[in-house]
Structures are given as C-alpha cells and as structure tokens.
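agent> fetching stored inputs for the pyridoxal-5'-phosphate docking request
agent> found them:
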Amino acid sequence: MDPSDFRRHGHALVDWIAEYLANPERYPVLPRIAPGTVRDALPPAAPEQGEPFDRIFADFERIIVPALTHWNHPGFFAYFAITASEPGILAELLSAALNQQAMLWRTSPAATELEEVSLAWLRRLMGLPDVFEGVIYDTASVSSLHALAAAREAAVPGVRPLGLAQRPDVPRMRIYCSEQAHSSIDKAVILLGLGHEALYRVPCDDEFRMVSGALAAAIAEDRANGWLPVAAVATVGTTSTTSVDPVAEIAEICRQENIWLHVDAAYAGVAAMVPGYEWVLDGADRADSLVVNPHKWLFTPFDLSAFYCRRMDLVRQAFALTPDYLKTVESTPVRNLMDTGVQLGRRFRSLKLWMVLRHFGADGIRERLGEHMRLARLFADWIDASAGFVRVAPVPLSVVCFRADADDAFNERLLEAVNAGGEVFLSHTRLQNRFTLRLAIGNLRTTEAHVARAWTILQETALQLRTPVEQ
Ligand SMILES: Cc1ncc(COP(=O)(O)O)c(C=O)c1O
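agent> prediction call returned; pasting tokens
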C-alpha cells in the first residue's frame, strides 16, 4: 500500500473505531443473522488481482459488521463480560505494526523485557510474592496446560525422553479439581496423555467451593489404590458462579501430599487488587503456579493470559529445545521466551498490558472493579426483593446467578426471548441440575442504567411469557 494511502486509510480506520466505541449501542449485542450468512456472501476463492482498500472496507462494513457479536456493548452480560479499552486497542495497533516476534531476546529485546516488567507489576498489584516468574500466553487454557505439564515433570522422572507409554514404573496419575472447575483442565489432562479418567472432580459445598476434606480423602483413597496424585487445581472465580475455592486449605493438603498446586484465577485474580477483596488470593502465595487473564477483567483486548510459576525451571525442562538455527550468544545471560512453552513465536502482548496498567493506574483499576462488584450486588438485591425470580448462588464478585421462579423450559424461553431483543445478552449455566441464568458485569462501558435496563427487560419478558396469549 502506498504510504499516503496508508495514512488516509489509517486515519479513517481510527475514526471508525472511535465512533464505534463511542456508540456501541447502535448495534444489537447479538447479530441477527442466520448461520452461513458471511460464508455465502464471500467468494469461494481469494481474488487473483489485488483490490483497493476502500472496496475491502466497504465489504467489512456490509458483510462483517452485521455478523459481529458486540463484546464491547454495555449490554453484554454473558459469559465473562470483557472490555477492549482504548489504550489496549492502540497497543494492539502498534503491536501489529511493529510485528515483533519475541521467540528470542535478540528477536525482540523490548517485547522480552517488557513482558517481565509488566507481569511483575501485575503480580505485585495482586499481592503475590516475587518468587513467581511470569510468562504471557494467549489463553488460560494454555496457561493451565503448561502448569500441569510442569506438575507432570515434577512428579514423573523422564517424561521428556521416554514419554509415558509402556512404562511399568509410572503409575496412573491423578489430577484433582472441583466439580465447578473449567473444562480447560479436562483438556489439559487429555492433551498431556494422562487420560481423561485421570481427572478427579472433588465435590463442592452448597456455595460451589471445593470441599477440601473431600480432596484429602480422595488423595488418600487414590494412593491406597495405586494412583499417583500429581496436582490439584484450585479455582478462584469459577466460571458458573465465581465461587472461590479454599486455596489456603488446599495449599496445605498439597504441601502435606507433596503435590503441585495450580490456581486458576483466570477471571477473579485481579479482584485481589481491590481493598477488601485481597482474600480471593489467600493461600495463593503458596501455589506452584497461577493463571490470571487480563483479557477477562482487566480491560485488555483479547487475548492475554498471565501465567505465573514458582518452578519455571520445570516448564523449561519440559519444553526448552534450541536447534542450531536458533542459537544466539549474548554478552550476558538473557531470557528467551521460546524456552517457556510449546510455541516458538510470540506476539508483543505485553505492550497492551503495560499500556493498560499505565493508562488506568492501580487506583483507576480498583475503582472500576469495585464499581462492577457494586452493580452485581445491586442486581442481586433486586432479584432477592422480587417475587418472580430467585437467586441461585452467592455473589462474591461481579456475576449473579438466578432463575425465574418456574421450570427449566420457561427459563430457557426467557433467556432466548431476552437475548432476541438485541439490547442485552445474558448466558446460562446449570446449577444443582437446574437451568440458571447468569448476569456477568465486567465491561467498562456498562453503567447502572444498563444493569437496570437488563432487569426491566427480564421482568417484562417474564411477564409476557407468563401471560396466556389471547385466541
Ligand atoms: C475459571 C476459568 N478458567 C479458564 C478459562 C478459560 O479461559 P481461556 O479462554 O483464556 O482459555 C475460563 C473461561 O471462561 C474460566 O472461566
């Protein structure tokens, strides 16, 4: 592209983005399109001849935008609501322009060292000790995979050279997590070759937290039956209800049993920054590893997962491998990020974390997280005071689980009808085997008025669904 064209399109693009961010409510949160719409609107093959950017952008607006789910919409209350904040967006733009590939210190000293600095900032903000070395991956799923790979490395000698097949010296391994732990733990166990049966799901109490006594009992029983307990995963902020496992108790069991403790704080770890919420990471200082996702509740555009490990040497032991063509000789020892995981190439993700942390400042972050939790409590109060709805779980952070006081089919219809309106988007889960609605607050653009509007829509829609249609 000609530099002057680039400048013109760049300005227009930034204007478009600014307009989009200023007014996300002009779009329905969920696109009103049928599956296949985008695919069918595009030719089956790439063009032979290059096309002018104006034409490409016109198609972006015509075909792509109507098919977007608007995660930036203040009425987005599904899953975990997230935010692409302005400093994060600008950092992503720069990151693409600079095209840093930080596999080696030499291939991007800035990306390598900024990753160290920004992760140390985040670690200290969360009150975690400096013994944790950090590395950035794309997602919590990949972070937890590396955690459990390191745990396997610690528990079983020779996995790297020998693998696991046909090894009579290696008993069946066991990983423990709660019934409410995220499915990424299942995937990690499967991928590490332990077999899905290696994952034991420890029961939860009636507030959806792991029962630590049940963990201890399961480990004892497994040992008696010849299993090798390898790791326990404690969740700080479970996906369905944001319940927080008793990490300190679990840490003590892991210490006694000499097994790895991984803390999945993907969503809720950042809450520890907020005065009064330090407790969410109580005991996490004793973990072997921990993951927190700034792309969830720290205003960082997707994707950025921060992985902290007390024994990063084990991650390196598992994965460091330097072919001749990647050998470098620096005058002083350097960190090469390719050594801390499966992937070779790495994006310059730390740039957005650094810019987000600097832009908001610790106080600005605390204030916004605190406001999200206030809004969640407010919504929970409305549910509690209403006749037609019931709350299904405690609200420790910024997610409210509830249902209309009716059967599952009604609640499913309610959710569909509410989401079809386009103003709000909520998701669901299953708790105590009942269909449950979730309202997750985490988007910077969500205000009390949006939460109130969601509540009005829910009540009005429930009323309409309850009112018999006149013949
Ligand atoms: C507790 C928890 N852990 C892990 C994940 C997986 O996150 P990611 O999409 O970053 O892999 C999620 C996703 O919501 C989650 O809630």
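agent> quick read of the result: The radius of gyration is 24 Å.
agent> awaiting further instructions
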